[in-house]
Design goal:
- By secondary structure, the chain is α/β, with parallel strands linked by helices.
- The strands form three sheets. It has a four-stranded mixed beta sheet with strand order 1-2-4-3, covered by helices on one side.
- A hairpin with a 5-residue loop joins strand 10 and strand 11.
- Helix 2 crosses helix 3 and helix 3 packs across helix 4.
């Protein structure tokens, strides 16, 4: 066995299948970690077969316990596979995807009426082609919806917060739903392009409240509740729905 050999297994917990990557390495101790893409188990390559098997059982049990304790935290990524002719609904508007594979280096997209034209490099793997489509779709829709986002944030700010605003962006951010800076700049994740309007509004209000209160204090939540009285329902939706570029979901 090589010092850095690896094998892949599958572990099913609560009806969800998790890839398990078992690494045999030049190391002194065993380790296990749970990531979005896989459970990683690391075993010293010098261990004998029996001891190696015992360590694997112990580490898998630890992973199973953690997954059962907090299934949402470790929920695997969900990736949508797009096909030519698919209908994409954004804020009650339906767009038809026109996907064409072309022998070129890069990929591109544009919106033409109710159609999104995508020219995707045929030189890429299926997985990379789909990633290109996802990224290009988010850019197209974000560009089209940014005036609406700016208008809604401005309206919420005037009604409930009255804070100086900086620049407002949709940002391809996988680590959070939204963020704001001390300069009043507000970023909203492109993953929310496909969320209900009231959920997007809650995230906007959340970030506006941070312009007054930087932490999640009681005062902060009172500010949020004033703008969005049923905000707890929106938080529940965000926790339960993971789509396209799903990852750890949190608010800044």
């Amino acid at each position: 066995m090589n010092l850095s050999d690896m094998k892949v297994e599958t572990l099913e917990v609560n009806g969800i299948k998790y890839p398990v990557k078992i690494h045999y390495e030049k190391r002194d101790n065993c380790a296990v970690s749970i990531r979005k893409k896989a459970i990683n188990i690391r075993i010293p390559s010098f261990l004998g077969r029996e001891e190696r098997s015992g360590q694997l059982i112990k580490l898998k049990r630890w992973a199973i316990d953690k997954l059962r304790e907090n299934p949402e935290k470790f929920k695997p990524e969900i990736h949508i596979e797009y096909k030519n002719g698919d209908i994409l609904t954004v804020d009650d508007v339906e767009y038809t995807l026109k996907i064409e594979l072309k022998d070129k280096q890069g990929s591109s997209a544009r919106v033409e009426g109710k159609a999104i034209q995508l020219a995707i490099s045929s030189n890429l793997s299926k997985e990379m082609q789909n990633k290109h489509i996802s990224t290009l779709l988010s850019r197209c829709i974000a560009k089209k919806r940014i005036p609406e986002l700016k208008g809604r944030i401005d309206e919420l700010n005037k009604m409930h917060f009255n804070q100086p605003l900086g620049r407002i962006f949709f940002k391809h951010n996988k680590s959070n739903w939204g963020s704001c800076s001390t300069l009043g700049n507000i970023n909203i994740s492109t993953r929310l392009l496909f969320a209900p309007k009231d959920v997007l509004e809650y995230v906007c209000a959340h970030e506006l409240a941070h312009l007054i209160e930087r932490n999640h204090s009681e005062r902060f939540w009172r500010l949020v509740e004033k703008a969005v009285p049923d905000y707890k329902g929106k938080i529940k939706w965000l926790k339960e729905n993971r789509f396209i570029w799903a990852d750890d979901m949190k608010l800044g």
